[in-house]
Amino acid sequence: MPVAIITGASKGLGEALARALAARGWDLVLDARDPVPLAEAAGLVSAHGTRVTALPGDVTDAAHRAELVAAAWRLGGVDLLVHNASALGAEPLVRLEELPLQGLRRALEVNLVAALGLVQEALPLLRSAAAGAVLVVSSDAAAEAYPTWGGYGASKAALDQLAAVLAVEEPGLRVWAVDPGDMATDLYAAAVPDDDGPRPEPADVAPAFLRLLDERPASGRYGAPALLEERR
Known about the structure:
Blueprint: E1 3-6, H1 12-23, E2 27-32, H2 35-46, E3 52-56, H3 62-75, E4 80-83, H4 101-128, E5 133-137, H5 150-169, E6 174-179, H6 186-191, H7 202-215, E7 220-223, H8 224-231
Parallel strand pairs: 1-2, 1-4, 2-3, 4-5, 5-6, 6-7
Helix pairs in contact: 1-2, 1-7, 3-4, 4-5, 7-8
């Protein structure tokens, strides 16, 4: 069975992707900082009969990243690496003049540096996979200038560029940066607590990511809404 590592998998899009892959028979290594919701998510995912290893920890910790890859190796390797873990930099979001520099450093460490560290750790296994792929979760804030989204958007823009360069350096892999669009997640609620407008559930967005796995288009940046619309 193929094996995926998914960071930030205790809730939201990470959990939705874990459930969707488990339903397809994937074995999974799941990460999140809080062990309690991670264990609950892993229990729901494993109900599909797949093998699930849940490892609580912080993706900015090199030892934790090595543990994730080692767990995947024990399951058979790494066919897919999903970097979904994200940090906002401030909760709620604030204008750049108020953004704590330590918050910006945290966003860069989680959203960018940890992504590269995990890729570096997993590259030997990804290269040896029959169809190795890296999927990083981007944001429209990486491409558009929204007030208060500057620090988070900057970290995601850098992540997009990292993914683009990785795709050139590793032509044997598929490397996709995916903007999921607005979703009803705790992350968005923490970012903009006063915005309670209706948004898609992560489970409704997950099929866009599955389409990439099914069709394996060229490495690049994709938007989930467009992928969903084209499939209809």
